[in-house]
Amino acid sequence: MLTRRLRTRIAPLALTTALVGGLAVTTTATAPDARAASGSYYLYFKKNTSDPINSKLYLMKSVANAKDKVVAKYRAGSGNGSQNECAVSKGWLPGTTTKNGKYTIEFHRTDFDGVINGYVIKLSDKKCSKGTKRTELFVHSEMKPNGKQGTIEPERWDGTRDYYSNGCVKLKPADIKDLFAKAKRYGWPKTLYVVK
User: Which residues form the L,D-TPase catalytic domain (predicted)?
Assistant: First the structure.
């Protein structure tokens, strides 16, 4: 009984590592900053400081008194290669869990028609560490408004170079469609967290 009580008190503070496809993902036993109630889902963006366009986006499930569960993981790029989070339309997504790395997911659509098209997840605006406000932040890909591949560059995925973005989080088309399918099946996340 005493062991169970100690585990319950200590577990939320302990960092755990989940091995996913050979990749170590550090998460906390329960969602830090009260991320989500047990059983709910959130997005977790892990910045890669050595290669920003080879970062990772995770769909996570919050689990009471245990490590959060990785439901899906995707390669994701953010920015044009710059790690300057204050560089508007160039730098990667601002924030880490220790420096204001929490975003509200404002909406998700499969038929967005704007500067970016198709499958999009709109993130809340965010001030970077120097106070510059970053706006028009999305998780998106390159596709036509109907979600299909086009013939012109902003609507056609050509490969690794397409992970570059204007500061958003970018997935390849098959991955963002898979993320939408899993989120629809399990429950749409309301929050995205950024760590590095």
Answer: 66-184
73-118 tens-digit pLDDT: 999 999 999 999 999 999 999 998 677 799 999 999 999 999 999 9
Report the alpha-carbon distance of residue 138 to residue 130 in Å, rounded: 21
Q: How far apart are CA 1 and CA 135, in angstroms?
A: 50
- Largest distance between two CA atoms of the chain: 64
Overall pTM surpassing 0.85 (yes/no): no
Collapsed DSSP state (helix, strand, coil) of residue 20: strand
Domain count for the chain, please give it.
1
Structure tokens at 115: 């500067």
Backbone angles phi, psi at 72, to 5 degrees: -155, 150
C-alpha to C-alpha distances, 55 to 128, 144, 147, 150, 183, nearest whole angstrom: 19, 24, 23, 25, 20
CATH number at residue 92: 2.40.440.10
What is the domain extent for residue 124?
A: 2-195
What phi and psi, each to the nearest 5 degrees, are found at residue 176?
Answer: -70, -35
pLDDT at 70: 97
